[in-house]
């Protein structure tokens, strides 16, 4: 029996937390596993209740990080000594550093860290960017294995962080295709737009700079000049006031709507004409792979990293150039926004192409099914022990 201890900040929030949840629920019965969290936040299920360090956070970011690093390392060492696992797997940057430090003197434990974000984009505006990049490279190279969520992230780790290539294994974020298919077939009773015969374009994601939704709205304004359609953006975030301003400036108040997070987003996605991802950067966006599992056609920006890999360089969906990420006051669209508008118009005017890409979406989503990701992780923990 292989013993695995997993370390993550919490079981609530984003993609890495969902991966931790899926691993705890679906790994081989020959892998005994437990989850340790830095905080007590939980929204995702696990095979058993996580062990929480219950680390409290204050109002000062850097002091919080240092405190969590210090206390987290001391506590995690105790858990490692008590549980004595064969592998210690961590998920986020702080978790990874704690994991590497805590296991550094115990050669019986294999240290596995995972990377779920584009690290270069995370620190690009940080004053000490070069120093942080160097430190991450030094720390991560001390791990026995590094799991990257995409080939793009793997390449970045090698080129930008000088990680030894042989240490890196790619394992995609798991997508429960059967569950999504079932949920996507549910009827919609709470949103009248879906009962009207007007095509809906949909975007799902946090309302942040990273997701670039203001570019999507600007492009949509061009589409709306010739096509009768609507845009739904599902999500919450700090960019909402700015997005509201753009919608008002372009006179789109009757054509663009925000939906809060829903327990089942898939029933909305499956009934949209197509999905648009306007992200400026990603790693391997869950929104894209899960949308494709719904059988929804996709248009996505060719950003770092993931969309090109997911869409097979344009075979399984439409790729457009990444937006410039600037906040434009003018109503004149940028070249990239114009190109997005053209592709959106193209899909609205071509039902056959929407059907084609819907079929290709379902086909491609199977490559990201939970069973395939679990197979990769099972191999890591059962064949490297």
Automatic annotation (TrEMBL):
Its lineage opens with:
Archaea, Methanobacteriati, Methanobacteriota, Stenosarchaea group, Methanomicrobia
What's the protein called, per UniProt?
A: Glycosyl transferase GT4 family
Q: Which residues form the Glycosyltransferase subfamily 4-like N-terminal domain?
A: 14-177
Spell out the Gene3D superfamilies in the cross-references: Glycogen Phosphorylase B (3.40.50.2000)
| Example of a GO MF term | glycosyltransferase activity
Query: Which organism was this protein described from?
Result: Methanosarcina barkeri CM1
Recorded hits in Pfam families, A to Z, give: Glyco_transf_4, Glycos_transf_1
Keyword terms, alphabetized? Transferase
Record-annotated Glycosyl transferase family domain positions:
192-360
């Amino acid at each position: 029996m292989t013993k695995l201890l997993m370390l993550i900040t919490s079981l609530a929030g984003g993609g890495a937390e969902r991966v931790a949840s899926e691993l705890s629920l679906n790994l081989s019965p020959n892998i005994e596993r437990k989850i340790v969290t830095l905080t007590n936040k939980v929204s995702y299920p696990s095979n058993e209740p996580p062990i929480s360090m219950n680390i409290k956070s204050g109002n000062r970011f850097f002091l919080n990080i240092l405190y969590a690093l210090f206390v987290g390392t001391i506590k995690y060492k105790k858990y490692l000594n008590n549980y004595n696992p064969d592998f210690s797997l961590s998920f986020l940057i702080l978790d990874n550093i704690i994991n590497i430090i805590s296991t550094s003197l115990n050669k019986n434990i294999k240290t596995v860290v995972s990377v779920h974000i584009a690290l270069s984009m995370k620190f690009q505006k940080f004053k000490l960017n070069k120093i942080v990049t160097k430190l991450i490279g030094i720390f991560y190279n001390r791990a026995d294995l590094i799991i990257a969520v995409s080939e793009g992230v793997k390449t970045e780790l090698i080129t930008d962080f000088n990680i030894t290539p042989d240490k890196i294994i790619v394992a995609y974020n798991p997508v429960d295709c059967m569950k999504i298919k079932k949920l996507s077939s549910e009827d919609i009773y709470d949103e009248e737009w879906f009962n009207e015969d007007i095509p809906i374009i949909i975007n799902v994601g946090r309302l942040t700079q990273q997701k670039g939704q203001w570019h999507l709205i600007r492009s949509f304004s061009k589409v709306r000049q010739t096509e009768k359609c609507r845009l739904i953006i599902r999500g919450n975030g700090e960019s909402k006031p700015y997005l509201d301003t753009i919608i008002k400036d372009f006179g789109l108040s009757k054509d663009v709507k925000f939906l809060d997070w829903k327990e089942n987003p898939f029933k909305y996605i499956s009934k949209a004409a197509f999905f648009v991802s306007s992200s400026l950067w990603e790693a391997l966006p869950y929104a894209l792979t899960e949308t494709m599992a719904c059988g929804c056609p996709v248009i996505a920006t060719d950003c770092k990293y993931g969309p090109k890999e997911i869409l097979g360089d344009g075979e399984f969906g439409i790729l457009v150039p990444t937006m410039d990420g600037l906040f434009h006051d003018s109503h004149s669209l940028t070249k990239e926004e114009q190109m997005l508008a053209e592709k959106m118009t193209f899909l609205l005017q071509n039902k056959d192409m929407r059907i084609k890409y819907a079929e290709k979406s379902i086909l491609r989503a199977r490559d990201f099914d939970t069973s395939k990701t679990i197979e990769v992780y099972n191999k890591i923990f059962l064949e490297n022990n």
